[in-house]
Design brief:
The protein has about 230 residues and is an alpha/beta fold. It is about 30% helix and about 20% strand. The protein has helices at about 30-40, 70-80, 110-115, 120-130, 165-170, 180-190, 220-230; strands at about 5, 15, 20-25, 45-50, 90, 100-105, 135-140, 150, 155, 160, 190-195, 205, 210. The strands form four sheets. Strands 5-4-1-6-7-13-12 form a seven-stranded mixed sheet, sandwiched between helices. Strands 2-3 form a two-stranded antiparallel sheet. A two-stranded antiparallel ribbon has the order 8-9. A hairpin with a 2-residue loop joins strand 12 and strand 13 (about 210). The longest helix is centred in the first third of the chain and has 13 residues, at about 30-40.
Length: about 230
């Protein structure tokens, strides 16, 4: 049994351009689907957050319309309720990468608020990338890649990634209220965003980095990470 580290947001809001605090957190499916896949494969999951706070779930991600119906919404809520690791996170600052076989970052707008500017997370991402260990990042979580910077150069510059797109942010109704858009900032950092169709699974594998565009990409991303774990 290997340990897989889930690095998750501790933010329960996303600050918009006008200063409004939009309620958010992590996106339920993006934690639940990979968690189910990793546990079914016999792996142990450890959750880490900035400061060791309990990661807040985005309540919108538990709604029926966000999960293709009430039945699936109830199933995902049940997975999260049974996920004791969510209630006992370790401090991101204390993580020793050597303890883990792989690292995974679920999304939601929360990472846009905290992980995008978290130096500890940035250093961990850089070390994970350099280690060759499988590193999975999905949806809005690629915002965390923005903090993986040294001497003005992003550690992920030149890598191909999938991430939540401008088109999806626009369709979700928040693009015109955001301080910045993920696709734009990644591109500015030299990361090559591979844009797929909105809301359709899109997983990009570049060396040990596995990224997904949206919530629908989380289960296929987990399958790719498991392949890399052998």
């Amino acid at each position: 049994m290997s340990k897989i580290l889930f690095v998750m947001t501790g933010a329960d809001h996303w600050t918009l351009a006008d200063g409004t605090k939009h309620p958010t957190g992590f996106w339920a499916e993006e934690a639940a689907a990979p968690y189910e896949a990793f546990k079914a494969a016999g792996h142990e999951v450890v959750v880490a957050t900035p400061g060791g706070v309990v990661p807040p779930v985005d309540q919108g991600s538990l709604a029926a319309e966000a999960n293709g119906g009430q039945e699936n919404a109830d199933r995902i809520a049940a997975v999260l309720a049974a996920m004791t690791e969510l209630r006992e996170p370790i401090r991101l600052e204390d993580v020793n990468l050597d303890d883990y076989a792989a690292v995974f970052y679920p999304g939601g707008h929360g990472p846009m608020e905290d992980l995008a500017v978290d130096a500890d997370s940035g250093r961990l991402l850089t070390r994970a990338l350099e280690s060759g260990k499988p590193l999975g990042v999905v949806c809005h979580a690629p915002a965390a890649l923005l903090a993986a910077e040294a001497d003005g150069t992003n550690a992920f510059a030149g890598y191909r990634v999938a991430a939540f797109t401008n088109a999806e942010e626009t369709q979700a109704g928040l693009a015109d209220q955001a301080k910045w858009l993920l696709q734009d900032r990644l591109t500015e950092a030299g990361v090559q965003v591979q844009v797929g169709e909105p809301w359709v699974p899109n997983v990009v594998v570049d060396r040990n980095l596995v990224t997904g565009q949206n919530p629908a990409s989380s289960a296929p991303l987990a399958a790719e990470l498991l392949k890399k774990l052998g």
